[in-house]
Structure prediction request, 191 residues.
Amino acid sequence: MAGLSAGMTRDEAYALMRAHNEDDFHIEHAETVEQTMRYFAREFDPDNEEFWGIVGLLHDLDWEEHADDPANHTVYAAELIREKGGSDELVRAIQSHNHDFNEALPAPELFMEKVLFASEELTGLIGAAVLMRPSKSVQDFTVKSLKKKFKDKRFAAGVNRDVVRRGAELCGWELEELFERTIAAMQSFAA
Prediction:
């Protein structure tokens, strides 16, 4: 894949994310998705790891301030990113993960966009499930445990299971493969 440019450094992206997010949960989610995307980039697109990471870091840039308007989630972010010199390809990648809620936004086309779409919600489910474990660690978390939590619609009810299923399809993976890969990604950087 050709070189992708975010139009900003990781430090600039982090400062932008912190300027619009104060809740520890949102900051941790941004960092988790960043590291998950970097993990996948190392396997599928190593030359663009920085871009994948910045996409993950900024994917929910506007969520904390505009959660009451989910259809326009990422529309507000586009303006903020462009003001700081962010590239059109960065905006497009971020907006693609909200296509299901706003069809005017671009659909995930690049493999990186499909990975973001597939893994973003799933990292939230895994994070919630890990907190319920005695170890509070993803290191001993299994696909079997994730399947159980995924089937229980009351558990982490805000996680859209249909988005996760569709994301796996977009990537050309079975749901179990997406589970395995995302757990492995999270294990790669968890303390």
Observations:
- The chain has one domain: 10-189.
- The two ends are 31 Å apart (CA to CA).
- The mean pLDDT is 96.
